[in-house]
């Protein structure tokens, strides 16, 4: 069985711009090959140096680097044939070979010459990389093209007259392979009337990056690893207008919006894309301080944290900000519609802020997160009940617990205890034991998705109230719930 040939783009110079796939392949390769001139230095190897260890290295040294020789193409063809044969020996021996290439392997890259000689004989994969053109545009902070503009990529080795004609005919351009061609490129830009628009970027993304108006660059200082850019005309023409329009909208915005965002149970990967977008668009973030601390710091945003016991006041504060034209995100853990801020915001808005738009973005609830840790305890009908008697009397809690227990549904118990509420768990357990078998499984989920996560299953009769705190959620099984193995609970969808 042969090895696999990988053409891996390693980006323009900064190792942190390598893709995850590229890093993984370099680290796991049997052989890493790279091109270099006779001096032996390789930009591609320098980019991946921190990932090299026991891999066999194949240095592919160009015999010539300019077209001054009488048979430049013949010398290169012979070099690529010999290099391909060296790599083929490794592939035939079952070794995976990674050929690293600056930028992207198929964008003016030397890898392509090996690919065309080997890809029909061996398994092959090409991993794209960030091109020097993309890195140069990023360095300038200027879009390459916008709307219906056409981007033309040109090698600086073209004759000056052809370069000038192509530059004059396109909206935006990137000119590669500068170095010795720079004088001709600058002349072509001047002939085409584009010199004043052109920018120069040298060694983009590296510590020695340099940018300048191309007209001001000394030809003697230009290395091969540089790019000439003629960026988007549309961007240049519309930026001042767009900026003025944005400032006018911000200054004159009549009414903003309140979005109530569910952050999920804790882990960042449980945050939905819709929730991420709502947070990114917000100008103000409002919430209980424990929850606002979970929102990544954004210097553009103002964060308003408050105590957990002022929900109505917090809602009114957020709505007042929105009435003044601000875009406000009110954050809740889990799902904002489950014992959280959505109800408070909608209630206050209906009473006092009818003209302020309110939107609710759902999240993964604590009950769902805890249930998922053990299987499917909420697989059939179930109820969610808060044991807190801060917003409703305890006798209401008792009646609802009894009704749900009598109806034989699984129950997710929120807010089972706090520093000031320590007896409700025991009272709830004793009430449920009147309806449930003592061996009924109870899932005790604490700090799920947090650093102190603990999820265990106990019998209802063995539930210890002192081990339940404000960061705990309980799931009480129904009579049909099953506990087939430690840490696994499910409630069948079939009944009876």
From TrEMBL:
Organism, as annotated: Actinomycetospora succinea
CDD domains: Precorrin_2_C20_MT, Precorrin_3B_C17_MT
Listed pathway(s): Cofactor biosynthesis; adenosylcobalamin biosynthesis
GO BP term (any one): methylation
Protein name (record): Precorrin-2 C20-methyltransferase/precorrin-3B C17-methyltransferase
Listed InterPro entries: 4pyrrol_Mease (IPR000878), 4pyrrol_Methylase_sf (IPR035996), 4pyrrole_Mease_sub1 (IPR014777), 4pyrrole_Mease_sub2 (IPR014776), Cbl_synth_CobJ/CibH_dom (IPR006363), CobI/CbiL (IPR012382), CobI/CbiL/CobIJ_dom (IPR006364), Precorrin_MeTrfase (IPR051810)
GO terms, molecular function: precorrin-2 C20-methyltransferase activity
NCBIfam families found in the cross-reference section: cobI_cbiL (TIGR01467), cobJ_cbiH (TIGR01466), PRK05990.1 (NF004647)
């Amino acid at each position: 069985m042969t090895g696999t040939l990988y053409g891996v783009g390693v980006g323009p110079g900064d190792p942190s711009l390598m893709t995850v796939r590229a890093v993984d392949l370099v680290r796991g390769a049997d052989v890493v090959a790279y091109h270099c001139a006779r001096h032996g230095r390789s930009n591609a190897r320098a980019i991946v140096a921190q990932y090299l260890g026991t891999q066999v290295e194949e240095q592919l040294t160009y015999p010539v680097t300019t077209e001054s020789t009488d048979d430049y193409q013949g010398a290169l063809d012979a070099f690529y044939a010999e290099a391909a044969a060296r790599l083929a020996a490794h592939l035939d021996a079952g070794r995976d070979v990674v050929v690293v290439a600056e930028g992207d392997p198929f964008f003016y890259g030397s890898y392509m010459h090996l690919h065309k000689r080997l890809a029909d004989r061996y398994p092959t994969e090409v991993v794209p990389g960030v091109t020097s053109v993309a890195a140069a545009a990023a360095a300038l902070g200027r879009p390459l093209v916008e709307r219906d503009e056409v981007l033309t990529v040109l090698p600086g080795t073209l004759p000056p007259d052809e370069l000038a004609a192509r530059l004059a005919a396109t909206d935006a351009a990137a000119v590669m392979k500068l170095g010795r061609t720079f004088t001709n490129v600058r002349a072509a830009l001047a002939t085409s009337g584009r010199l004043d628009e052109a920018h120069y970027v040298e060694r983009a993304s590296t510590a020695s990056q340099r940018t300048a108006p191309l007209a001001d660059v000394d030809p003697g200082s230009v290395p091969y690893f540089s790019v000439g850019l003629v960026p988007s005309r549309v961007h240049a023409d519309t930026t001042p207008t767009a900026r003025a329009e944005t400032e006018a909208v911000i200054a004159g915005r009549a009414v903003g919006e309140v979005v109530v965002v569910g952050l999920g149970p804790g882990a960042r990967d449980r945050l939905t894309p819709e929730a991420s977008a709502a947070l990114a668009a917000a100008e103000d973030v409002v919430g209980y301080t424990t929850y606002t601390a979970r929102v990544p710091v954004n210097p553009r945003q103002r964060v308003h944290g408050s105590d957990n016991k002022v929900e109505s006041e917090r809602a009114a504060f957020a709505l007042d900000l929105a009435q003044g034209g601000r875009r406000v995100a009110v954050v809740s853990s889990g799902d904002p519609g489950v014992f959280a801020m959505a109800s408070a915001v909608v209630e206050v808005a209906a009473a006092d802020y009818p003209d302020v738009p309110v939107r609710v973005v759902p999240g993964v609830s604590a009950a769902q997160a805890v249930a998922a840790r053990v299987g499917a305890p909420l697989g059939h009908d179930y109820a969610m009940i808060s044991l807190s008697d801060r917003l409703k009397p305890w006798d209401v809690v008792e009646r609802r617990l009894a009704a749900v227990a009598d109806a034989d549904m699984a129950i997710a118990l929120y807010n089972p205890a706090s520093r000031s509420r320590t007896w409700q768990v025991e009272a709830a357990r004793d009430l449920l034991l009147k309806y449930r078998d003592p061996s009924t499984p109870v899932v005790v989920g604490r700090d799920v998705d947090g650093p102190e996560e603990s999820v265990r299953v106990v019998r209802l009769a063995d539930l210890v109230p002192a081990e339940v705190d404000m960061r705990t959620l309980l799931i009480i099984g129904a009579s049909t719930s099953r506990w087939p193995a430690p840490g696994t609970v499910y409630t069948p969808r079939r009944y009876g």
